[in-house]
Amino acid sequence: MIDTKKIAELPFDGQIELMEAVMSALSQNQAEFDSPKWHLQELEARTHELNETEKWRSFEEVRERLKS
To answer: Between 20 and 30 A from 13 (CA), which of 1, 4, 59, 60?
Structure first.
């Protein structure tokens, strides 16, 4: 198991390099893994929200609401 304390001790650029190495390793094996069910459910929910144009608000409306 990886000691996360050692990761925390790495300089920031070392942490980024480690993350890139992990992502590269994962992407080489991506065909072996299925996305979790919740991921598809979330994508479907967001797609549904995008199609509900009656709920869309202009930037000005949102800005005014946030000010109040």
So the answer is: 1
